[in-house]
TrEMBL record:
A molecular function (GO) term: metal ion binding
Catalytic activity: adenylyl-molybdopterin + molybdate = Mo-molybdopterin + AMP + H(+)
Pfam families: MoCF_biosynth, MoeA_C, MoeA_N
The MoaB/Mog domain, residue ranges: 179-320
Species for this entry: Nonomuraea wenchangensis
Pathway: Cofactor biosynthesis; molybdopterin biosynthesis
Family: Belongs to the MoeA family.
GO biological process, any: Mo-molybdopterin cofactor biosynthetic process
Name the record gives this protein: Molybdopterin molybdenumtransferase
Record function comment: Catalyzes the insertion of molybdate into adenylated molybdopterin with the concomitant release of AMP.
Regions that span the bilayer: none
Keyword list, A-Z: Magnesium, Metal-binding, Molybdenum, Molybdenum cofactor biosynthesis, Transferase
């Protein structure tokens, strides 16, 4: 009989420390100008300024008559938005018919809406209130004003605002690219898994999770077990990785005969930043930096463990790359939850007015509980029942 000597158990890093290491493992990506569709959801890398005033000139706020002096007024023309401006200034006693948004002629003192005017042949009468219904140049937004600060999220509304202010491209921190490698000979990607097979449950949730955290999945590649395919994928040049900033490896993180992540990382000379975390589920997770640049996040193959690990290592790194400040939500936890003496527990919960309530079904191999939950409660070792951190689920 051959005796196999396994590595001694190495003390895993605390969950808090692992999250800190992940956030500190990268720097925010440099600013790039991108078109609006690409900028959506990114953070501004600099302040957004008004390139033009809004409105750009004095315009009418109503459909009616721009008038000078007291009525009745002689009708001197018509001005439409996008049409020809009135050729000269209005003299006292003159009016032009005007559309909402059309430039008011110089000399106009007010706009009298149709509803308040009495039109005759070549003339119009009514009561003018000085300055009424004229939107002055820059009244809404002065030229040069900072309308959104650096770090603001580019929302759909922000895109509309930027366009109104004359911007074509926006200067943002781009979405970090994430390449996903799914390992496992038993993992299938379509249909009902047969005997000895499991359906990939991690590849389908990562794009949404990555997008929610500010990144984008550049590609999802399925690899057979064994070190050579993993090694080839991790040592590909940047263009072979789609320029990804982070490579996520799912499975192969533990100590089994097909778990090659650590061996491949060592062979490639990677700097291992996290090698196991004192958390349940998800302890075999890992974080490393390859010599040629990208970060590698190793997620366990058990899908709920992979989710917990993604929230521990991947999401904090993506948030840092996108320049997103760390936030912390705390709450109370109901139900009968016990802490573990050594490991942090991640417990799927729903947040209610009475505090967070565990939803159950939280086995490492199943996403059932996490799918019912809207957050994971972070139960530290030796928890005393005080307030706890809640990490939001996408
Ligand atoms: N001797 C030890 N064995 C294990 C340990 C340990 O510390 N010592 N840790 C256990 C824990 S905890 C976990 S989690 C797993 C992690 O395993 P791996 O990351 O190496 O992943 P696999 O062995 O490939 O798979 C584990 C499990 O998950 C299923 N799987 C894999 N990929 C997927 C996928 N994309 N979608 C759905 N399910 C997947 C796979 O079939 C296995 O059932 O290791 C324990 N063992
Ligand atoms: O990370 Mo594992 O899922 O705790 O079983």
């Amino acid at each position: 009989m051959t005796l196999v000597r396994h590595d001694p158990v190495v003390e895993a890093m605390s969950w808090e420390a692992a999250r800190r290491v992940a956030a500190g493992s990268v720097q925010p990506l440099g600013a790039v100008p991108v078109p609006p569709a690409e900028a959506l959801g990114c953070r501004l890398a600099g302040p957004l300024r008004a390139l033009v005033a809004v409105p750009g000139v004095d315009v009418s706020a109503m459909d009616g008559y721009a008038v000078a002096g007291d009525g009745p007024w002689r009708l001197a023309g018509r001005v439409l938005a996008g049409g020809e401006a009135h050729p000269g200034p209005l003299a006292a006693g003159e009016a032009v018919e005007i559309a909402t948004g059309a430039p008011v002629p110089a000399g106009a003192e007010a706009v009298v809406p149709y509803e308040r005017a009495v039109a005759g042949a070549g003339s119009v009468d009514g009561v003018a209130e000085a300055g009424r219904h004229i939107r002055r140049r820059g009244e809404d937004i002065p030229e040069g004003a900072v309308v959104l600060e650096a770090g603001a999220v580019v929302t759909p509304v922000a895109l509309g605002l930027a366009a109104a202010l004359g911007h074509d491209d926006l200067l943002v921190r781009p979405r970090p690219g994430v390449l996903v490698l799914i390992t496992g000979d038993e993992v299938v990607h379509k249909g009902r898994p047969g005997a000895g097979r499991v359906r990939d449950a991690i590849g389908p949730f990562l794009p949404g999770l990555v997008e929610w955290a500010g990144g984008r999945v550049t590609d999802t590649v399925h690899l057979p077990d064994g070190p050579s395919a993993l090694r080839a994928a991790l040592s590909a040049p940047p263009e072979g990785r789609g320029g990804a900033d982070v490579v996520v490896v799912c499975g192969a993180s533990s100590k089994g005969p097909a778990d090659h992540l650590r061996g491949v990382l060592a062979a490639l000379g990677a700097d291992v930043l996290v090698d196991g975390v004192a958390v349940r589920p998800g302890h075999p997770q890992a974080l490393a930096r390859l010599p040629h640049g990208p970060l590698v996040a190793g997620l366990p193959g058990n899908p709920f463990a992979a989710l917990g690990a993604a929230l521990t290592l991947l999401v904090p790194a993506l948030r840092r790359l996108t320049g997103t400040p760390a936030t912390r939500e705390t709450g109370t936890l109901g139900g009968d939850v016990r802490s573990h003496p050594r490991d942090t527990r991640l417990v799927p919960v729903r947040r209610t007015r009475e505090g967070a309530v565990p939803v159950g079904h939280d086995r490492p191999g199943s996403l059932w509980g996490a799918a019912l939950a809207d957050a994971l409660a972070v139960v530290p070792p030796g928890w005393d029942g005080e307030r706890i951190e809640l990490i939001e689920l996408p």
